[in-house]
Amino acid sequence: MQTSNSHKQSKLISTTTLFVLTATLLFTACSPKPSAEETAAQTKAIVEKAAADAKAELLTEQAAEKAKQEAMAAAVKKEVQAQQRAAVNEKVARRPAICANCGVVSAVNIIEAKGKGTGVGVVTGGVVGGLLGNQIAKNSSNQRAATAAGVVGGALVGNQIERSVKKTTTYDIVVQMNNGTTQTINQATDPVLTVGQKVKIENGVVVKN
User: Fold this and answer.
1) In terms of C-beta distances under 8 Å and separation of at least 24 residues, what long-range contacts does 17-23 make, across chains too?
2) Do 51 and 85 sit in the same domain of this protein?
3) What is the dihedral sign for C-alpha 14, 16, 18, 21?
4) In what order do the strands lie in the sheet with 182-187?
5) pLDDT in tens, 129-187
6) Domain count for the chain
7) Which of 35, 92, 131, 168 lies 20 to 30 Å from 49, alpha-carbon distance?
8) Taken in order 59, 60, 64, 67, is the CA torsion positive or negative?
9) At which of 151, 166, 181 does a domain end?
10) Where in the sequence is the domain holding 33, given as residue range(s)?
11) Are residues 83 and 184 in the same domain?
12) pTM for this one?
């Protein structure tokens, strides 16, 4: 850029000098012979005007070139920004959406609850216990006491047996959700899951993901 401007300036000065010499010769030929001082003053005025015109033209060209470069730089910057925005949008579009019902198993707890006695076990156990007590203490002076003890003991055993038979086993599955929350799901069946396994919750049931 600097070399181009220098070349243009040199060309303008050369043209100006030629113009000054031509004008001086024409002026000398058509006018009475001026004094040396007048000739020098006229020449100086012409040279200064030509130099001023050349400088103004050069400044105009430099300003135009600068504006052109600034416009190009602005266009390049705008294009780079557009590409950066496109890259960001593409990255966001490729990012997988967070699964709201997905997570990881953090614990599986087995919950056992004994069933409630209905009285059937008490009655049945009492009858069986009474018969056993009566048979064991048969022909004994303590037959009645043994029979009563058998009834009581049998009733207790029968009640425990009934409750054990009716006990329930459920499973509390603790899931650390992808959104940072924790959910505990109780299921009646064994989920066959391990801690750290990826799962999702569907209709209140934990399933493998």
Assistant:
1) 17/47, 19/46, 19/50, 20/46, 20/47, 20/50
2) yes
3) negative
4) 182-187, 168-177, 102-113, 198-202, 205-208
5) 445 545 554 555 554 554 554 544 555 555 566 566 567 788 999 999 988 899 999 98
6) 3
7) 35
8) positive
9) 166
10) 2-93
11) no
12) 0.37
